Amino acid sequence: MGDPLEIQTVQDRLSRLKELTEFTENCKNQLNDMFKTLGWSMDYKQEAMEQCPYDPDHRVPVRSIEKHKAACRLRKMGYSAEEQAEMYDHSICYENSSVRTFTMDKSTQHQVILQARSAAPLMRMEGVFWQGQYSGQPVDVPQNHKRAVCDLTVADRLALYDHVVSQRKEAASSSNEDLYVDLVSKLQKDDEQNEPKTHLELMAEMRDYKRRRQSYRAKNVHITKKSYTEVIREVINVHSDELARQWREDEDESTRSEHSSHRRRLNERRSASSESHNSHSKRHRSRERSQDRESKKKKRKKERDSRSPSDHHHERKKKKKKKKEEREKEK
Fold this sequence. Notes:
This protein is an all-alpha fold. It contains 12 helices and 2 strands, in the order H-E-E-H-H-H-H-H-H-H-H-H-H-H. Helix 4 packs across helix 6.
């Protein structure tokens, strides 16, 4: 016979196990019902995972490992999430262009700085960077302007700039053979067909442009050397002058129309007054003439009445004599 306590514990364990199995079966049934309603399958294949090279605790899916590596590397270098959000990939701007890009890593950056430091003078000299102004320890390549100013000195940044410019010149000199190809026929064909110019044609035009005399190229230096603010100010002044001129013309036209309407009114008034004055004067003149005629008639009548019949007879004889004398002269 066994111990009753042990028998009791075994029974308790069996009952507890039964409850757990029933609970798991119930959960499985609920999950199966849920998958059926959603149309999902229980046969799930786990995606392949890969370990992050910058943090061994990170296991990331293969499809997003590159993005995670870039973000994890910046995080290890000390860049915050805000700084990472402000960064963007410059390579997108040069995908469909022939511009050559340069990638700088930590070792190349340190070698460039060391070469510039070895070529610099040992002692401090005016106008030249000396060796003490260059950084001696390798520094991570800065990913934004703030880190470039903080981690690199002015001499370091100038050395890196000179290195990139020299690399660009070497690349341009290696591709200069393409500029000496006879492109006259090709240019003529392109002009006829109105096709866009190729990179070689644009470089040939730039070469011809640089060969021109300075007096021919830069006659408008007073325009090209102006800042954006000065150019915009001039444009605004030109537009304001044009608007002022149009406003003056509109004002002149309105004043002219007012003067012309005022003159018309004055002329109408003058014509009306002159007509009335002329009619009045005509009436007055006709009255005076009629009065003069009547007065003359009255005078003649008085003279006739005052004369005697002998005088009339004597006058008639004189008139007859005059007529006879005139007739004889005519003969």
